[in-house]
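Predict the 3D structure for this chain.
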Amino acid sequence: MIELNNFLILSTILFSIGVVGVLVRRNAIIIFMSIELMLNAINISFVAFSSFLGDINGQIFVFMVLTVAAAEAAIGLAIVISLFRNKETVNIDEINILKW
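Done. Predicted structure below.
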């Protein structure tokens, strides 16, 4: 049987990879993928704690997180497509339309 610590270590590693992806990369699509990776790392922790504690609340919260992630992906990709059509780039350093 896999212990709780193994799930938490996996979750921490995935979350760290996501944070590095958000902080280092400049491509908007890769940043969205890194955010999805961080959300899934949190979901692993929720499911692991839910299973360890024998409580279903963690699994219910995973569905809420997945719903937010799906909405974020849909809206984010729509914004990226719109920006690409206008600026012809997805590099966030070159997208400065909200600056004064």
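The mean pLDDT is 91.
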